[in-house]
Model the fold of this input.
Amino acid sequence: MQTLLAGVAAVVLVIAATAVLAGGEGLDAMDKISSVGAFALATVAAVTAWRQRPRPHMPAPTLLPSRARRAYLKWIIARNRDMDFRGLNTQSPHYLSVESVFVDVSLMPRPIHLASGDPVAKSDDGLMERRQIWSFLTEWPPRTLAIVGPPGAGKTTLLKHLALLLASGRGPTRLLRKRIPVLLVIRDQSSAIAEDPELPLIEAVAAALPPELRGARPWLERQFSRGASLVMIDGLDEVADPGQRRAISAWLERQISVHHANGFLLTSRPYGYQSNPLNSADVLQVRPFTDDQIERFVRLWYTATEIRQAGRRDDVVTSDAKGKADDLLQRLRDNPQLYDLGVNPLLLTMIAQVHNYRGVLPGGRAGLYREICHGFLGGRRAAKGLSSELTSDQQESVLRCLALAMMQGSKRDIEAGDAARLIHEQLARVAPGVSPEEFLAATEQQSGLIVQRENGVYAFAHLTFQEFLAAVRLREQSQHGYLAARTDNPWWREVTLLYCANADAGPIVEACLREDTVRSLLLASDCAEVARELDPRLRQQLDWVLSNETHSGDLRRAGLIGQVILARKLRRVRHPRPGLVLVSEPITNAEFDLYLRVSKGDSPAYWPAHWTRALVLRRPDDPVVGLTVKEKKAFCSWVSSSSEWTYGVDSFDAWTWPESIEFPEEGAVTKIDFSFDATDRESVSSGGSIIAKESYLDAVCGVSHQGLRHWNGGWGERPAGAAGFVSAADMANAIRSVRVKLRLMRLLDNGFVCLDNIEDVWAGWQSSPDRDPDDLLVIVESACELAESVWHSHHGLMADEVTRVLDCAIMLHWQASGLIRSTAQLWLRRS
Done:
């Protein structure tokens, strides 16, 4: 039609122009051209006015069913393909597809009054099976499902994932593969439904379609009538007006009844559904991410991000993604406060965005919390087109006052009336027309930053948010003196660190050095690490205290500084498997020596059998080994007594043996060779120098090597040494067994002399604070003399007892000299 009009206009213009040019005898050339131009403009104006005349509504042409189906499903895929990161301050320059990062959330049936709206609540139902959405869609039509969860729990992403799978024909069962997904953001249709409660479902769906798909309406109507559609209603809670929410709930009940052959899903936060539940719906609670799901999401997110940035997928890109994911996961595990936030998919996405594009973890927790508060209070709602009477900055200013007041009152929960009283003054400054009660209810319902733990009792969703907002309020008021007076109070520790992250930490560090306790010095160390600024002289003074005073002759002072350093180490943890939290590094010789000096008064009576000062000085940073279970448990109790955590023992057993060991002193044994061919009985029986490696593997590991018995010809069990390191009890038992055997046989006077010498040396070793590993060679020499006497007297049946003493002495010498390395170290498990 438009082409025809243009053609007619062109013909008219040509005729008019010809007439003017041919018949205008009294006009010059310029007048003729002007006349033609004026006529042309008038013609164009007339045609334009005719085209814009009022016309009756013309319905979109109906699409053929096959074409309608293809076009509609293609539109569903295009509309839901990408993740929605709108409202986050830190965003990727690239969109990420839903399928590239989707981790299926878990669902569980739960009565609506028990559903949690806390975005970082930990799951309290670990014994219950974690179920996916497909397990609730095993029959058709399925039960109507109301999926409820806190903000950021992944409800919308779950619906996007469902829509994509169904639109691409990838449903997990044949029952679902041919179902047509219909995803309706209900807030977009809330006004129309409120105006016309009888609005048909197809009208609401058609209103959301783009103009080019309006012709698919008849085909969609047929899908509803055939019961072939899965209708997904997203965001009931995002309808702000309570009256409209009631109207929409009633409308949904009618649509479910009319189209009962179809499936229906609804998502909402708990508060938005509790007051307007559907009679026909089963409620499913979205569960928090598990450790495995956190790790899977981080790895998928980084892989997708790196591929999008590089524009390719190869080994280099995937390796970079793995390295960045490993780094973020380790930083999260090193920081329990951040790790707790990762149970919420939105918060975990924020953390990943900040880590990748700003690099502020872990020292920049304050910046991360600022991002989270912005996202919850305004960013996400503004991105979705949801309005609020207060800006996010105004809401945050009110919450800062509440947070500081709750910190000052040592409160995690607060009655609604008390909260309203505390925020009244600040709220009147930023929004005089809003009552405190309205503000609390709206903030709880719309942001999720505060929650109702029970009826009429509010709390911040996580203590971290309360601490961050309190720190911001103190910094606004320049109240560093308030925090400086509380350096030894653990309740204010995180607030102080978050304060220092954006302020001069000098007054806090000075106060900590004056307080001079484990808590205050540890706080000073942490403040110096995260501070925006700190006087170099104060930093130097703190470094000197922490590096030099561990060696102080004053045990109290050395113990104090040592505990500060140990406490910093204990904070570095890893999660080798779900439910297991290990300190990242094993306890060292120096750290165990500190425990002995501080808690046992430096008395050798409490030392492990192999312990020497030389070992600590020579190998202070080596993992401590050779401890009994009792000694390990005693150390854990000491550590736990000054920590907020409880620690237990977690050991790993594996050995690394040296090839040979040279003894510095002359004696019956000058060398122990571990070669496999050291099996000559004569060299052993004549007081020679060779003992086979298998003898000690057998002694330590309890493995019997048949035919390789250099002391008794190869028969009998080998009792020498226990599995693991030799203890004082092992040596005492070995000596006792020899004495009992000698008395029973009434032989070997020289044997008693050798044994007495062994006992004297052993007693002196145990009581001496100046132990020398070479003192144990006297026991080795006496044991060899005893062994030689046993062999020449042909009393081979006593060889096992004698060998036990020899093995214990040799093992103790190796332990005390630091020549045996073992992964049977002291690892602490945190609970």
